[in-house]
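Dear Dr. H.,

I hope your travels went smoothly. While you were away I took the liberty of generating a structure for the chain from your last submission, since the lab meeting agenda had it listed for discussion. I wanted you to have the full record in hand beforehand rather than looking at slides cold. The sequence, exactly as received, is reproduced here:
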Amino acid sequence: MKRGFKSIVIMVLLLSVTSLAVAGQWPQLTDRLEKWQGAKEVVMPEGVDLFADPTLAPLVEVLLDQGYAVLPQGPTEKGLALEVRETASGKRLLLKRGSDNAILAMEKVATEPPAPQPVVLQTPRKTAAVHQVAAPVVMSQPHVLSVQHPQPVATPGELMFEVPGNPVQIVSWSAGDGVELYLLYHDRLQHFRSHGQYFEPLESFTPAVDVSRGLRLTTGDLNGDGQPEIGAVWSEDVHDVSEGTDSRLHSWVLSTEGLKPISDDLQGYIDLSDNQGRLQHRQSYEAFAPEIFPLAVKKGAVVVGTSAATRTSRLLYEAIDWPNDQQALVWNDDQRLMLQAHAKHQRIPGTTLLTDFGDYQGPYVSIPLKTPEYRSGFSASDQVLAKEVVLSRRLEKKGGAVYTLIRGRSKGLPLMGNASGADRLVKIDQSGNGLQAQYPFAAVDAFILDFAVFGDPAQAVLLLNEKEDGTGTSYLRFQRQL
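The corresponding predicted structure, in token form, is as follows:
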């Protein structure tokens, strides 16, 4: 009898050792399991046998020890689900809520199971209260997404969140102890807030028209009240068999108080920066019209100037007023940056920055050709009816400098080869009469779709994706300077 009792005690202690070892290996996951108030059931990940996997097998014991029913692969509406996902930073174990697939925890999967640590027995402690987040304005239930700690190559203090869906643009600024983030999707604009290790969705705006793709997101304080406004631009791609695809623009200026539009559909490119707003329309067979109109806020609504503020031979996203209002930093035809004088619209000699910014392929507009072109022959299948014009990558002013991104990552050859290389942000400063490039932030082994720079000293948040076209898994990565 004594031997049997001792055996039971030893088994209990061994289970305790296993549970504590797993808790040390995956603290976020075990914490979410303890705090879960729903159905005590967990669906196993697809294609992974947890019982045979030496790294993940201890997790099954922890689930059973906490009273969870372990279910085979399949859907669950009331419980939780585990998923093992391969990312650019290695294998990750995800804990999801079955009702809406919200990610509750994400942990790095070690290549080998860690050795159990010595256990110090102590009196049981009370389970911590569930963290409550403020209820969002539109969404009925907030989804708390998890934090992924980057690999050791990242700078200290960096955080990375997996983002739902496939956003294409971002604007952001610091607010109190958190960060306000606005992400442009192909069908909506979504407001998020990051605070500590939580990432919370709030209100959203959905265009009243049937848009196809998100194009541009900018922010500025048009009326100088300290509350930023947001300019969002979408494309409605109209397909015609005889004329090709035509990208019709839809755009709004929105208040950040509830994401309410304060303009009509302006049907053009919007650019908000500092206390200024600009609007540029398209032409039937051209990506843009030469006239740029000013935007202003009067009595709470956006008003478009009746006469053009300037005429240009460039799309407004290709230039930014810097370092003063007499000059502009512009992208030239070779995708290099240079300074241009506003008065004469001419390049200032000696100011071309000979930095390789890489081949950037971002949001684009499709423009019908007035006269069809032909690839090789003259058959209908050889006709080219439209061209795609890629919008320039972001130029963002901060602290007297300008930031943009360098595309150093390649997607590899079609049907073979993996993506390789790294993208990074670059800081453009004046150097004498010319320009110089500096690299204050770490490079990343993923495609930077867009970015925002905020705070003092400057910090960055990167909108990343596993694929260059933005159709892969999306992440937000917060960076501090090296």
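Two observations you may find useful: The radius of gyration is 26 Å. The longest helix spans residues 2-25.

With kind regards,
E. W.
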